[in-house]
Write a structure and sequence with these properties.
Two copies of one chain form a homodimer. In chain A, 37% of the residues lie in helices and 21% in strands. Chain A is an alpha/beta fold and 285 residues long. Chain A folds into two domains: 2-173, Rossmann fold; 186-279, Pantoate--beta-alanine Ligase, Chain: A,domain 2 (2-Layer Sandwich). In chain A, the strands form two sheets. In chain A, strands 1-4-3-2-6-7 form a six-stranded parallel β-sheet, with helices on both faces. In chain A, strands 8-9-10 form a three-stranded antiparallel β-sheet. In chain A, helix 3 (75-84) links the parallel strand 3 (50-55) and strand 4. In chain A, helix 6 crosses helix 7 (151-163) and helix 9 runs antiparallel to helix 10 (220-232). Chain A is globular, with a radius of gyration of 19 Å. Chain A starts with a strand and ends in a 6-residue tail after the last strand. Chain A binds chain B through residues 7, 11, 18-19, 21, 100, 102-112, 129, 133-134, 137-138, 159-160, 162-167, and chain B through 7, 11, 18-19, 21, 100, 102-112, 129, 133-134, 137-138, 159-160, 162-167.
Chain lengths: 285, 285
C-alpha cells in the first residue's frame, strides 16, 4: 500500500495506472474510518483493479460554528484499517495544496441542496461538491462509492456527476449500524455515555415511521408528529429536521409513496446526528 | 475530419485517442468562426496529436436580455473552416444533451468574476465556467486555448483549472484584429456600416491609453478621463466600463504598473463590444 501526499505524485500514479489499462475505484473519506467506510471499501474492492481511499477533512464543508477543528483524526489508525482491507493507495493531501490560496472556485448543485441538511448547514453541500470535484479530477476514478447515511450527499454528487459529465459510475452502500441500531458515524465519538443511549431515538423513530408508512393508515403529518413526540421524550435530543420526501427530488410528500425517504437530523446534546430509512417498494392501494 | 454530436460518442473517441497515447488539443468555441478562432486553431495544431474544436452556443452564459437567440450560427461555414485548418474532430453537441433537464450544477469562480464584464453581465462567467468544465470532462484535453480578447474569461478559466485540479495546460493567444484595428468578434456582424466605423473608437482609445501609460506622466484617472472623452465623441457609443487593472488579480490600479491591463466594454448602437490591451514590461522609474 502506498501513501501519497502530493497532488502531482497522485496524478502521475493515476496516469501510470490508466496507461496500463487498469480501472480505479475510489472511496473519498474524511478519515477516522469506521465499519461504514470499511463496507464501502469492501464493496468497491471487487469492482476495480486499483483501490484508492482519500483521507481529507475538508474545511469548506464545515460552517464557521461547526466542528472542523475538533473533527476526529487518527491517520495511523486509518492507515492500519486501509492496509488490512486491501486498499492500494491512500491519498492524503494537505489542505494547503488542495485549497492553494487564493482558491476561488466552487461547484454548486442547486435545488437538491436547498432542503434538509442544506437548510441547517448553509454552504455545506457547496463544500462537498467542490472537494469531490477536485478529488475526482486528481484521482480520475472509473467508479466511486458513497454511503447512504449521507443520503442527500450521495444524491447531490450523482447529480453533479451527471450534470458535469464526469465519466464515473457512482455506487451507494446501505447504512452500517451498531448492534443496537445507531448509524455508524465518526461523530458518534462525541457522545457521552448517556447521550450514546439517547442517540438510539433516531433509528427508533425511523423504524416506527417506516412501520406506520407500511400500514397505509397514516397521513405524512401524523407520522411526523409521532416521530416528534418520540424524540421529544428524550431530554438531550433536539430535532433539527424530519423529512418525508421523494427519494429522487427530495420534494416533501403529501402522501406516502411506494418509494419514500424518511430522514432526520437530531442534536443529541451538542452533537448533530443524521439518519434515514429508504422505504422501498411499498405496495400501494 | 469527424463531426461528433453525441456526448457518449465523443467520450468513446476520447478513450480511444488516449489509449493510443495521443494528446488532445482543444478549442472551445460558440461557432461562427473568424480569424481569431483560426489563429487559436493554428497555434494549438502543432502542439497536439488530435485537435478537437467544439461548437456550442452556450445558453447559460447569456443574460435573459442578451443575444442568445440572435447569436450568429452557420455550421456549414464553420465545418469548411475547420476542414481547411486541419481540425480532426468537431464536437457539436445538442443543448438538450449538454444541459439535460433537470440540470442543477454550476461551477463558479469568485472575485475575478465580480468586476468588469461580471458587473454588466451577472451570471455570464458562471455560465462560462460551467460549460467549460462540462466540455473539459467530455473532451479531456491535454491542452486548451483561449483568446485574449476575452482576457477576463481566460483568466477565470485558468483559475478554475488550477482550483479544480484539471490536468490541462491553458494557452492564450493575442487578439486578432481587422486591418483597421477592430478586434475580431462574431458580434461585429451586428454592426451597421456606420457603427462599424464608430467601433474603431474602442481600439483607438486603448492605443491612446497605452501611449499615455508609456509616457509615465499621467495618473490612472487622467488616462481614463481621456478615454471617456474620446469615446463620448462618438454619438452611437456608450461606455459600459473602462478598467485599468492588475492583469493577474484584476484589482483596480492606483498607479500604472510595469504590467497593466487596460480593458473596456462599449455599446456601439445596440451591440456590446469588448477589447483590451495588455501593457507589459513598462520600464518603471
Amino acid at each position: 500500500m502506498q501513501i501519497v501526499k502530493k497532488i502531482s505524485k497522485m496524478q502521475s500514479l493515476v496516469k501510470d495506472i490508466k496507461s496500463q489499462g487498469k480501472t480505479i475505484g475510489f472511496v473519498p473519506t474524511m478519515g477516522f474510518l469506521h465499519e461504514g467506510h470499511l463496507s464501502l471499501i469492501k464493496t468497491i474492492k471487487s469492482k476495480c483493479d486499483i483501490l484508492i481511499v482519500s483521507i481529507f477533512v475538508n474545511p469548506t464543508q464545515f460552517g464557521p460554528e461547526e466542528d472542523f477543528n475538533n473533527y476526529p483524526r487518527d491517520f495511523n489508525r486509518d492507515e492500519g484499517l486501509c492496509q488490512v482491507t486491501g486498499v492500494d493507495i491512500i491519498f492524503y493531501p494537505s489542505q494547503n495544496e488542495i485549497y492553494e490560496p487564493p482558491y476561488l472556485t466552487f461547484v454548486e448543485v442547486d435545488k437538491l441542496t436547498k432542503t434538509m441538511c442544506g437548510i441547517s448547514r448553509p454552504g455545506h453541500f457547496r463544500g462537498v461538491t467542490t472537494i469531490v470535484c477536485k478529488l475526482f479530477n486528481i484521482v480520475r476514478p472509473n467508479i466511486a462509492i458513497f454511503g447512504q447515511k449521507d443520503y442527500q450527499q450521495a444524491l447531490v454528487i450523482k447529480q453533479m456527476v451527471k450534470d458535469l459529465h464526469f465519466n464515473i459510475e457512482i455506487l451507494t452502500e446501505p447504512i452500517v449500524r451498531e448492534a443496537d441500531g445507531l448509524a455508524m458515524s465518526s461523530r458518534n465519538r462525541y457522545l457521552s455515555r448517556e447521550e450514546r443511549k439517547d442517540a438510539l431515538v433516531l433509528f427508533q423513530s425511523l423504524q416506527m415511521a417506516e412501520q406506520m408508512a407500511r400500514e397505509h393508515k397514516y397521513a405524512v403529518e401524523q407520522i411526523k408528529n409521532e416521530m416528534v413526540k418520540k424524540i421529544e421524550e428524550i431530554p438531550t435530543a433536539k430535532i433539527d429536521y424530519i423529512a418525508i420526501v421523494d427519494p429522487e427530488s427530495l420534494d416533501p410528500l403529501e402522501k406516502i409513496q411506494s418509494h419514500t425517504l424518511i430522514a432526520l437530523a437530531v442534536y443529541v446534546g451538542k452533537t448533530r446526528l443524521i439518519d434515514n430509512i429508504l422505504v422501498e417498494n411499498l405496495a400501494m392501494e
